[in-house]
Amino acid sequence: MPLQSGELGLRTLSILLSLLVPAHPTRSPDCGGILTPSGLSYLAEVSKAHAEAVLRQDLMAPTAPDLMLSSPKSSRNQITSVKVAELSLSLIPDAGLRLSIDVDLGVTPAPATGPLSILADFHMEMNPEGNLELVTSACKPTVEEMQSTEEMERSTPRFSLLRDLGNGGKEETEAQICLEVSKFLLSPNEQLMSLTAPFPVTPSCQVQYVPLAAPMFSKQGITISLQTTFQVVGMAIPLPISPVPFSMPEPVSSSPSHLTLAFSEHFYTSLFFALELAGAFNMTIPSPLTTATVAQKITQMGSLFQEEQPVVLQAVFRSSPRVVLEEGKASLKLFLTVHMGTGAPAFQSFLSVNMDMSAGLVLSVASTRMMISAAVTDHPGRTTMTAPGRQRSRFLSPGVLSEGIFLPHISSFTYTDVNIVIHKVRKKTFNLPPCYV
User: Fold this and answer.
1) Phi, psi dihedrals of residue 381, rounded to the nearest 5°
2) For residues 436 and 46, is the Cβ–Cβ distance under 8 A?
3) How far apart, in whole angstroms, are the C-alpha atoms of residue 159 and residue 55?
4) Number of other CB atoms surrounding residue 261 within 10 Å
5) Measured between alpha carbons, how far is 139 from 199 in angstroms, rounded to an integer?
6) Domains of the chain by residue range
7) Domain 5-36+196-436 superfamily per CATH
8) Which of 253, 262, 344, 375 is deepest in the core (most CB within 10 A)?
9) Cis amide prior to 109 (ω within 30 degrees)
10) What GO molecular-function term can you cite, just one (predicted)?
C-alpha cells in the first residue's frame, strides 16, 4: 500500500534522525563464518576439474612444444594429455593454505619421469578495495625421476621435465609451472569479490557484508569476521552500537558441516531497524469499524462526525523493533503507537493507543537466502483499549522479507542440508554444508 504524505514525512524524519546516531568509532563484527576442514576437503574435490582445465589449456597449447626441447639437438617432446590425479588443500595454522597436486602428463616420446607434483602455499589478504584475495606465498614443482637402463639412455634422449623443459632450463620451467598455479586463483578471487557485493532486501534497502580483516587460519578451520552494513535509498545507515561484543562460536570437531555461519542478536535488530526506515512495514491498516460503530462505545464521536465514515488505523514506531534470541527461539518486539481515525480527505486521528507486540520468528534457508516469517504471539496494550484482534497480524506485512535476506555467499554457491540452532548467548549459528553449481 502506498505511503500517505504524513507517513512519508515520518519516514523522512526517521531517516534524518537515524543519521544523528553516532557511528561506532571502531568497526566491530556482528556476524561471521568458519570454513571447516571438511569443507576445505570438499572445495579441493570440486576444484580438480578447474585446475586440470588451467593446466591443460597452457601446457597443451600450440606454443607449448617449443618449450619441450630436452636439448638443442634433440627431437621435440609433445605433451599430449594432462590429468590431475590428486588435489588436496590443508590448513597451515596462523599462515594460510597448502595446495598439493599430482599431475599425470602424457608426453610423446615417452619420458623417463614419473608424475609432476606441485606444492604451493597460499595466504589471504585484503586488497585496497576491501575485498579478500588469495595470494601465492611459495611454489615448488617436482618430478619423480624414473630409473632407466643404459640401453634406454643410449637409444632415447633422457627427458627430465624440470631439468630440460624450456631453453632456460630448470628454473625457467619451475617459473612456468608456478605461473600456471597462480592462474588457479583467478576464478576463486573473482568469487571472493562477489562476497562483498550489495544484496537487495527490499526495493529500497540493501545489505552488504564487509570483511573486517584477513581470515584467521587454525586447525579448526578458516574464520572470517564480517560487519553488516545497510543502505536505505542508497544511503548507508549508521547503526546503534551493539551492547554485547560478538564472537564466533567454538567449532564442533565432530560436526560434518562444511561451513558454520553465526549471526548476532544485534544483526537481526539492525535488519529490522533498516526495514523500518525503508518503510517495509504496512503502516496504514483498513478497519471494519466505522465512526458510527465507534460512537456506540464513545458517544462524543456522534458530534464529531455527522456522516458515517470508515475508520483506519495508522501505526507509528515509538522506538525501533528489537530481536531477542533465547535458547531455541527468537522473537521480534514491536513498540507501536496506533492512531485510530478517518482517512478522508486527510487522516484525522481521534484516538491513540500504545501497543507492544511480540512476534515469534521462524527461520529457514532456501538457496542463498535466509527466510524469516513472523507470527504474532502476544500484544499487551498499554491502555485498556487495543486494536481489534483480527488486525494484529496486519502490523507485520506479508510483503516484508517475502524473498528472504541474502546470506554471505559467493557466486555459484548454494546452502543445502541446513541445521539452525538458536542460543541464548546472543549468537545465531548455522551449520551449512555447501553445494557448488
Assistant:
1) -80, 150
2) yes
3) 20
4) 24
5) 37
6) 5-36+196-436, 38-184
7) Bactericidal permeability-increasing protein; domain 2 (3.15.20.10)
8) 262
9) yes
10) lipid binding
- The one-character DSSP state at 67 is G
Return d(Cα 215, Cα 76) in angstroms, integer.
46
Gyration radius (Cα) of the chain, Å: 31
- Specify the fold of 38-184: Bactericidal permeability-increasing protein; domain 1 (3.15.10)
Q: What's the pLDDT tens digit per position in 382-429?
A: 322 223 333 444 455 555 677 889 999 988 888 988 888 888 754 455
Distance separating alpha carbons of residues 206 and 371, to the nearest angstrom: 16
State the Cα–Cα distance between residues 238 and 23, nearest whole angstrom: 5
Residue 287 CA to residue 316 CA, distance in Å, equals: 16
Comparing C-alpha atoms, which of 124, 115, 165, 122 is closest to residue 142?
115
Task: Answer with the residue of higher pLDDT: 162 or 202.
Answer: 202
User: Using CB atoms within 10 A of its CB, is residue 245 exposed (0-12), middle (13-18) or buried (19+)?
Assistant: exposed
Place of cell 471494519: 288
Query: What number of CA atoms fall less than 13 Å from residue 233's CA on the CB side?
Result: 9
φ, ψ of residue 159 in degrees (nearest 5): -105, 110
Q: What are phi and psi of 132, to 5 degrees?
A: -80, 145
Strand order from edge to edge, sheet including 405-406: 284-290, 310-326, 329-342, 348-366, 369-378, 405-406
87 band by pLDDT with thresholds 50, 70 and 90: very high
Q: For residues 281 and 396, is the Cβ–Cβ distance under 8 A?
A: yes
- pTM strictly above 0.85: no
Neighbour tally for 204: CB within 10 Å: 16
Interaxial angle between packed helices 37-59 and 170-183, expressed in degrees from 0 to 180 and rounded to the nearest 10: 120
Residues 336, 284: Cα–Cα separation, whole Å:
13
Spatial CA neighbour of 54 closest among 113, 99, 103: 103
- Name the strand (E) or helix (H) holding 187: helix 186-195
| Closest to 278 in 3D by CA, of 7, 5, 95, 79 | 7
Query: Phi and psi of 368, rounded to 5°?
Result: -110, 10
Phi-psi region of 367 (alpha: psi -120 to 50; beta: other; left: phi over 0): left
Partnered with residue 356 across adjacent β-strands are 335
